[in-house]
Specification:
The complex is a heterodimer of chains A (about 475) and B (about 100). By secondary structure, chain A is of the alpha+beta class. Chain A folds into 3 domains: about 280 residues, no CATH class; about 110 residues, no CATH class; about 60 residues, Arc Repressor Mutant, subunit A (Orthogonal Bundle), CATH 1.10.10.410. Helix content of chain A is about 40%, strand content about 20%. A 9-stranded mixed beta sheet of chain A has the order 3-7-8-11-1-12-13-14-15. In chain A, strands 6-5-16 form a 3-stranded antiparallel beta sheet, with no helix packed on it. Chain A has a two-stranded antiparallel ribbon with strand order 4-17. The mean pLDDT of chain A is about 90. With about 100 residues, chain B is of the alpha+beta class. Chain B has a domain of about 45 residues: Histone, subunit A (Orthogonal Bundle), CATH 1.10.20. In chain B, about 35% of the residues lie in helices and about 10% in strands. Chain B contains 3 helices and 3 strands. Chain B has a two-stranded antiparallel sheet. The longest helix of chain B has 19 residues. Chain B is flat. The chains are: A alpha+beta (about 475), B alpha+beta (about 100). Strand 2 of chain A pairs parallel with strand 1 of chain B, so a sheet runs across the interface.
Chain lengths: ~475, ~100
């Protein structure tokens, strides 16, 4: 029998705000346990949350960029559950009036045609803390640093039909979230997490099959693998005459299989009610308009501008705009050196080569974002040679050195002032009478030889063009 | 709505508490009384009334996106039932 896979996604993304959603603590990733925690995010009685305005703004941005309707009258709701990752014993979330509804993202479908994946809703909520289970001591240790970091949950309709469609949807969504500046979407750090709702049904059937929900996938590759596995598992059950059980399953990427989680019994009963500690949020037309007008340039618009205004080749543009990290570096570098084409060449040449060599990706770039621009300026102004520039860049890439300081300290600069070069060149002319005569007799090769001798005498620290110019002046006198 | 023994048992489970028999009887009665009292409201005609979630006419109370807190772990952990390695320590709890 032929089966169709039906997939819907719930994506959680941590917002790049500085402050947590309801208190004045930092959202910074990591840090010693409980050092980014206060009386509010540790759920002490008698404390009051105050909503971070930026969270609302970022939610509106995401809603606009995913073609959603923005809800005018918003409120938060209390989702009650008893688990130590949430010290209040409830999560502040939005159930009844999510901030965004009825959107869509366009993807390339299975058949190669563009298709829409509908967004059911996007809502604001707070992240939970991290539990560390200590088997030895039979206890659980809790770190609340992540507790209260703002999240958007983006819920799609069950509109995807294959792992490829899911990956395309996630790639588009990530690009939107990164370009709008809403989230850095680092899957390794959990700032982008996807839960996959999947069911299978006979091809052509109108009814949905029983779905399972899969959690714990921290890369696109793992998601694709988990989908293939879970679809096959469900098909096998049906073929054997069994019934798929609705449950939450955890993906074990190392072993390439999923297993049923011991369900939080009756956890569905969250006893939601309107959050009394937070007043409603009213989002008027002016607010939406102002967010719309200040929306950062999205990928397609950027691509168009790079090609049309900066004159970059389409292929290069594609490579750069595929990664927000390359885009940021490119824009900073261009701003400093004022030569976008040259900046693009360095990024696609030297930088991608270094990333490749070290098995890193653009999001791992950790050198100062002004360094590449400074190197290009030095090369273009003839202060260092192109080769030296590449060597300095290697050092910047590996050790994040300050390129200008590094050149000065290691005496790598080119000498280009005539006063310094002239005596050396005169010396070379005096010592190479034979070649000088050959040149004067019309032998052009002799000039190349003399330039070589000058460069040797200068130990490569002068721009060859400058040397040639002075040399010719002296010889042609 | 009628509060049954089953419902009380279910609420115990959700709240992760255990009541003894005497408390169960009392809880059942209390909850029933509360609901009956609230039921009085059903006598009113609310057909054309907007649902109300907050009783004060306040909205859009925001904080700017600024970090003002530093590390206050020692203070915060004073409220922990027990602590270990800078963490709150609780009974082993696994999903």
């Amino acid at each position: 029998m032929n089966y169709e896979i039906v997939i819907g996604l719930e994506v959680h993304t941590e917002l790049s705000t500085k402050r947590k959603i309801f208190c004045n603590c930092t959202t910074q990733f990591g840090g010693e346990p409980n050092t980014h925690v206060c009386e509010i995010c540790s759920g002490m009685p008698g404390t009051l949350p105050v909503l971070n305005k930026k969270v609302v703004e970022y939610a509106i941005r995401t809603g606009i960029a995913t073609n959603c309707d923005i809800t005018t009258n918003n409120k938060f709701d209390r989702k009650n559950y008893f688990y130590p990752d949430l010290p209040k014993a409830y999560q502040i979330s939005q159930l009844y009036f999510p901030i965004c509804r009825n959107g869509h993202i366009d993807i390339i479908g299975k058949d190669g045609e563009e298709k829409q994946v509908r967004i059911h809703e996007i809502h604001m909520e707070e992240d939970a803390g991290k539990l560390i289970h200590d088997d030895w001591e039979d206890c659980t240790l809790v770190d609340y640093n992540r507790c209260g970091v703002p999240l958007l949950e983006i819920v799609s309709e069950p509109d995807m039909r294959s792992a490829e469609e899911v990956i395309d949807y996630l790639t588009k969504l990530r690009s939107i979230l990164q370009y709008t500046g809403v989230s850095d979407c680092k899957m390794q750090e959990g700032s982008l997490r996807a839960d996959v709702n999947l069911s299978v049904r006979e091809m052509g059937s109108k009814e949905f099959g029983t779905r399972t929900e899969m959690k714990n996938m921290n890369s696109f590759k793992a998601i694709a693998r988990a989908i293939e596995y879970e679809a096959q598992r469900q098909i096998d059950i049906i073929e054997e005459g069994g019934k798929v059980v609705q449950e939450t399953r955890r993906w074990d990427d190392a072993n390439g299989e999923s297993y049923a989680m011991r369900s939080k019994e009756d956890a569905q009963d969250y006893k939601y009610f309107p959050e009394p500690d937070l007043p409603p949020i009213i989002i008027g037309k002016e607010w939406i308009e102002s967010v719309k007008n200040n929306l950062p340039e999205l990928k397609d618009a950027k691509k168009k501008r790079y090609i049309e205004q900066l004159g970059l080749p389409e292929y290069d543009t594609g490579l750069i705009t595929d990664s927000i990290h390359l885009v940021r570096l490119f824009e900073k570098t261009s701003e400093i050196c004022k030569k976008p084409k040259i900046a693009a060449n360095w990024i696609l040449g030297e930088l991608l080569m270094r990333l490749n060599e070290s098995g890193k990706t653009p999001e791992d770039i950790d050198f100062d974002d002004s360094s590449l621009g400074k190197i290009i300026v030095m090369v273009e102004e003839g202060k260092i040679s192109r080769d030296t520039g590449k060597k300095v860049f290697k050092k910047v890439f590996e050790e994040n050195v300050d390129p200008e300081k590094y050149v000065a300290e290691n005496n790598l600069g080119l000498v280009s002032d005539t006063a310094t070069l002239k005596p050396v060149i005169e010396d070379v002319i005096a010592q190479n009478e034979k070649s000088v005569n050959e040149y004067k007799g019309g032998k052009q090769q002799a000039l190349q030889y003399l330039i070589g001798q000058c460069m040797r005498a200068l130990r490569g620290k002068a721009p060859a063009q400058e040397v040639q110019k002075i040399l010719k002046e002296l010889l042609d006198k | 709505m009628v509060i049954t023994d089953e419902l009380v048992a279910y609420l115990e489970k959700l709240g992760r508490i255990e009541l003894d028999d005497e408390q169960r009887v009392k809880t059942k009665k209390d909850l029933q009384d509360i609901l009956s009292y609230i039921d009085t409201l059903n006598e009113l005609d609310t057909d054309n009334i907007e649902p109300l979630s907050h009783s004060f006419p306040i909205f859009n109370v925001f904080a700017e996106d600024e970090v003002k807190n530093g590390d206050m772990r020692d203070e915060v952990l004073k409220n922990a039932p027990e602590s270990q390695d800078g963490c709150f320590k609780v009974h082993r709890t696994v999903e």
